[in-house]
Amino acid sequence: MLHSRTIPAHAWRRNLTGSAAMLFSEDRDIGEFAIRRYGPEGIQVNEVTYAGTLLLTPERLQDTGLPATLEAIDAGCLDAWLQEGPEILLLGTGDRVRFPSPHLIAHVQQTGVGLEVMDTPAACRTWNILASERRRVVAVLFPIMIMGGE
Questions:
Q1: Which candidate among 14, 26, 116, 134 keeps its CA 20 to 30 Å from the CA of 128?
Q2: Between β-strands 61-62 and 54-56, what pairing exists: parallel, antiparallel or unpaired?
Q3: Each residue of 30-58: pLDDT tens digit?
Q4: Number of structural domains in the chain
């Protein structure tokens, strides 16, 4: 059962750009890799902050050899991620939702794996929930880039 709660003011921190970064302080067992915070400075998994694209599975974290942008994803990337055996492929697309090309979406759908596309903050929260439920999820999380004037 989910309970609604107010996030205390101390759970938010301001980074150097003045934008808020969310801190997590969940007490449930999330598994091997728990996302503790995220923001423009990076994504903190357990005690380490990563600035680039991340791949998370229940068993491993990869932070090298991944596409730097959504546009760099190709069928080979998807096939490698699908080899992890997910029931859900979670795609965090940065500071806003952006969808991969229709042929890449169709490529995933043909495998029967669910594809969930959302901004990276939502994907981080979703990862923690699905990981705590011991779901077979693979998350690809692109950095959160806050651009001036957008």
A1: 14
A2: antiparallel
A3: 678 999 999 999 999 999 999 999 999 99
A4: 1
Residue 134 structure tokens: 């011991």
Establish if 1 belongs to a structural domain: no
Rounded Cα–Cα distance for residues 84 and 113 (Å) = 11
The answer for residues whose C-beta is within 8 angstroms of residue 29's C-beta and 6 or more apart is: 132
The domain in which residue 108 lies consists of 9-141
How much is the mean pLDDT over the chain? 84
Altogether, the residues listed in the chain come to a count of: 150
